[in-house]
Specification:
- A 3-stranded antiparallel β-sheet has the order 1-2-3.
- It is built from 5 helices and 5 strands, in the order βββαβαβααα.
- It is 48% helix and 21% strand.
């Protein structure tokens, strides 16, 4: 389970003990940079040498754009990357009774989620689709700003002694 923020990401490595029991193997934090990704990859490798693992899955919560570079890095290492929307992670946390909101607890919750749920691996979007998404978001932002400015102008027109400027 990986909880990503702008400057760093918290990781919780968890394994199944059989049945419904899980155990935290290790948890730590890395910088959200290429060197942090490389240190993370080495950290995972070190811990996996001590475990018997059938399959390793990396679950990240989609946090704006902050998770994208790590997701791409893991994908390029041919890892099984899973990215879930925040509302899906929140619903899982709630069902598990995880109410505290810290990055460490979120990483543990995501680790639990990947062990308990059948989740679809992440596939990067095409560059054309990514461009379209960026343009659509930019257009939406401009539309909101236009509406806000029209509302401000309308309010100024109806105010007492409006400023001519």
């Amino acid at each position: 389970g990986i909880d990503v923020s702008k400057s760093d990401f918290k990781v919780c490595m968890m394994g199944n003990l059989g049945g419904k029991q899980q155990k935290v193997i290790s948890s730590t934090k890395f910088d959200n940079t290429l060197s942090g990704f490389k240190k993370f990859w080495a950290w995972v490798d070190k811990h996996l040498k001590k475990c018997v693992c059938d399959q390793v899955e990396y679950l990240l919560e989609a946090t704006g754009v902050y998770h994208e570079n790590l997701a791409w890095y893991l994908y390029e290492q041919e890892a099984c990357v899973i990215v879930v929307l925040p509302n899906r992670a929140k619903a899982f946390f709630k069902s598990e009774g995880l109410h505290s909101k810290t990055d460490k607890i979120d990483a543990q919750g995501l680790a639990k989620m990947v062990l308990q749920k059948e989740l679809k691996p992440w596939q990067p979007m095409s560059s054309k689709l990514k461009d379209l998404r960026s343009l659509t978001r930019y257009h939406e932002t401009l539309q909101k700003e236009i509406t806000q400015n029209k509302s401000r102008l309308e309010a100024l027109k109806h105010s007492h002694e409006p400023n001519k400027f």
